[in-house]
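Re: folding output
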Amino acid sequence: MKRIISLTILAAMQLVCIAQENPKLESLYAYLKAKGLVKYYTLSNKNQEGLRKRYDFNFGLHDDGPAPIKDFMGRLLDAKEDSAVRAEWRSYREAFHVIRRTLSELTEDAAESYSYEYHQNGHDTIITTIALKPYENEPIPKKFEYPENDNYGTGKTPEMVYFRYTDSDGGLKWRMDRIGVGELRVNTIVDTTLYATKDFDVDALHKIIQPLFKDKSIKRHEIHCVHDSTFDVYTIDNSTPFIEGFMRAEQSVRRQGDNRLTVYKFTSEEKAKLKLHQVMECVRQYIADHPREAYTIFSDEYFPPLNPARMFRGESCRNMYEIDEPRKSMTIDAIMDENGFYILINIWDDDEYLPMNWKHMKEMVNGKKTYFKFDESWP
């Protein structure tokens, strides 16, 4: 019964968040999500201003005229490939127009906005920054700076939208080259009352999650990475081969770290998705019961290729650069490749890093690495 009530509370909280957001922004996100162009938004209560909702959308536009399409090797695409490529290009161009139309409508009711356009001889630059709401005690948001340095210019306004589109400087060399790239960033405070006042209780959540992985058929291994203040994660990352570096690194003011990472591998997509959903349901349940503990969470779970997606992070509610004492944090990542699906749960003190070669690493102490010897079933 308590679980049902807690999930109801969380659902109600999310509905309140949605209700407080600008309906035009809601509609824009719903459109991009339905088209499969964005997969999630994040909710974070880390800062004292409230619960923030964020999402980004990066895209490219192509020459989608009727001429035949060739790949980078000069091979003419067959009918099926041509149709799929054109459909993708068309979805991005349609999204571009929907974004532009939405931004034009939002500007009419904005507390402050900045727009810049340049079009000449095939060269295009479009920049739009919108502060939809000022703070109640600050009727005018921080003044805009010119966006040549990519400064948003809106400070910490409750509802900020940033859009930039530029043509590709190198010109169109191949038909499949992008003729321009765009980025949309939406950052809004959806509830001013839901901000973190406590450090996240990592041990409590970990205790709840652990029973989900008791299934002995789930392959796993643990990685222990520890270093003292003599080791600089950024220095070694920049001076070693890519595979020996880090996929993610974050250094605290204490300049030391103790990372305890567990990797869970699944070969069944159905089982992997079910387990990730169960884990994230536990996280949502915990957040519903402890809304004042500092966290960032994805709205939807999924397994991306290439780079792990950080589905969840529980951390200290204090600024990482101002803490001169140990702080414990936790992340839950997901990733897939041709060999399987992986859930990565990392619990660490102070500095965090995810080794590039996390599949095979056993331990790293001040940069000195040791590896597991796996059989072919664990690539």
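--- second protein (sequence, then structure) ---
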Amino acid sequence: MEISGVSSSAYTSAAAAIEEDEELKEAEEEKASQESSKTEKQSGDKIELSSNTDEYSESDVEDKVSNYIQNILASGNLTDASVAQLQQYLNTFDVAKFIKSYGPFTTTAEISAALYAVTSGMVKRQDEE
């Protein structure tokens, strides 16, 4: 099939214009890609820095520990010796030493796991004896 009435110079200039448009689009996409990479790197850095601020403070840890021990004591059915040990632990609790030994803590589950490790030997039920 032959196209008549169109000069070859008009065809090549149209083709060149299309190629230029494609090159411009590719350049814009590349620039946008680079900018999004920079944004991702920056936001990744922000995430990394903000994760350090999500640690529980000493007062938060102390509150969680107190609540944990109080819940065990309230559950009842503990031996008198067990109640005394848990109460003594709570009264002499050193939050800074606890965080240094088992922390830093970013979730309540981490605090609970550490407390379970510390208090599991102290908890004795009356029906276990």
